[in-house]
Amino acid sequence: MDQIGGIMLSPNELKAKIKRVFSFKKYYPVYCTAFFGLLITSAFFLFFVSFHYSHEVEQYRINTENVLIKFKNGIEHYTSLVKSLSGLFYASEYVSRDEFREFVQGTLIRNPEIVSLMFIPYVSSDTRNEIEMQVQEEVFYNFFITELNSADHLVRASEKKVYYPVIYVEPFNLNKELLGFNFAQSEVGLQTLNYSRDSGKIHSMIRDDQVRDPGNNNRIYLFYPIYNNGAAIVTKSERIKSIRGFVSCELDIEDLFDAMIRDFEIKDYYMNLYIIKEGIEENISRKIGGESTSNSTDQLNENEINRDFLFYSSLQIANNEIPIELMPTGDYYSIFGDLTANIILTIGILLTCFLSWYFAGSVNRTSIIEKIVDERTEELYKVNDYLKSEIVHRKEAEKKIERYARELKQRNEEVKRFAYIVSHDLRGPLVNMTGFAGELRSAITTIENSINTKIGDLDENIRQDLNYALNEDAPEALDFIENSVKRMEGLINALLELSRIDRKEIKLENLNMTEVFKSTLKTLSHVIDERKISVDLQQLDDVQADRLAMEQVTGNILNNAVNYLDPERTGEITISSKEDSDEIHYTIADNGRGIAEEDMEKVFAPFRRAGKQDVKGEGMGMAFVQSLIRKHGGRIWCDSKINQGTMFTFTIPTIVEKGENENGRSKDSIS
User: Fold this and answer.
1) What percent of the chain has pLDDT over 70?
2) Residue-by-residue DSSP string for 110-140
3) 333 Cβ contact list (under 8 Å, min separation 6)
4) What does pTM read for this prediction?
């Protein structure tokens, strides 16, 4: 019985209640309303979300293109500044340090992101001393052309064919260490200057480890060549011959980036932008858009990046191409960002819930009528349950009858087969062999008496052969025949005994199995004491069984356990039991020789013996045991490992049917 809400319900009543509540057919309109309502709502919601999403992706693409246009315009601004600085040197054959400072002062004020503006003349090895002396006479008495050594210290430059030292640099106070620095020291610097010289165009160089401060690589240099008589320069060879020097602009990449995005407004859009360049350890990242321009990086987890909004491009700074990656911040786009889609989702869910509630109410009203019908059919359920129970019991009885019939038929066939073998095929030959053996003994005696009368007339050798044949060979052969006949009679008797077991009536009684095993062990006590065998007899479960049969079973198993112990170690025998479901398991384990795996099939077979045959027996003991156990409705099996021991386990059912059979005998006895 189950209890719901304090009311005891029978299984059928519980089934009826569950059926009323969860009937699919009854609530079909409710399910359909909820399903199609949510389906239509989801379809409209996804449509508007998809439309809004596509619009946002397109708008983001336009915004990123605007950002790139502004960046490119910013780069062009700085290249124009460098070119305009070259005009100062083309306007005059000689430009003084004060003139250079005055010319670039306004540019530096308007563009604070510029680190330095420089003039770098071309100096050959022949004019190096002249240039150094000229600068020393002007103002810097300790000036000389420098380069970085292996310890990153500025030292006087080694002898080279060409030098490109910094002669003018502004703002000077912040860039004193650049004065005299030879940009042609490194291979990258020399190549960049030569490319600019040969092409007549601006070239850029991202500072490497051999320029100025090796630990800070976030600088880029723009070089623009200046030629003598620049208007007449046309070919590469003319440019090489006429090179005067370079004007250069040094930019901090991070400051350059900040300057380009300064006052950059994209309403309600925030993006992270990364500039990645070779030779720079850290990416340069800024958050831009709206009123926020922050140096703090709004990093995104890799799993949070929306690939639809990921934008790749590059910035061209003269000959250097710097790849960039633009992506929105984490809160840039939300699937619930579209107000129209949210309104449709809310209205659709509310309408679906209302309609489902309405149809559910209609179904509940009909359940009252169904309840009355269920109460009227309760009696039918009870009758139906009773009939089902009767059918189950009848089927179980039929199965038992069929099983008993099969067992009876099988046992009858065995009895018939054994009776035929014993009465017809085995008994006759044995009787003949016994009779003829007796006649042979009589004949030998007659021959011996006859020969004795004539033995004196025979040759000595013949006389010895006759005596040996008559007194030793013939009697020994007859003894062998008679012993074989006796053994055969023993086997026949064993077969008869095995056949009688199936016909024998088993009388069940309550047996104390502990006492049964003790009685059996007592009969073997002389052997157990002689061989100093350790026996562990545990408290065993009682059972209903035939006493004589159990004594035969325990006697055979324990006799085998004692006889087949290993003489090399102290024998141990353990006897235990346990109850399992509807039967009791009895286990006899020893530490004897064990049985090889290939011999296991011989254990319960008649006339077959496993292992070394140094113990007398007919090979019928375990066959008797198996028949007796089966007679009780039990099972027996063997587990063994060679040189480790053997364990026999047999079961006896705990349930015994009461009543009388068709012959009027109690079912407490089994035949």
Assistant:
1) 69
2) H-TTEEEEEEEE-EETTTHHHHHHHHHHHT-
3) 53, 56, 306, 309
4) 0.45
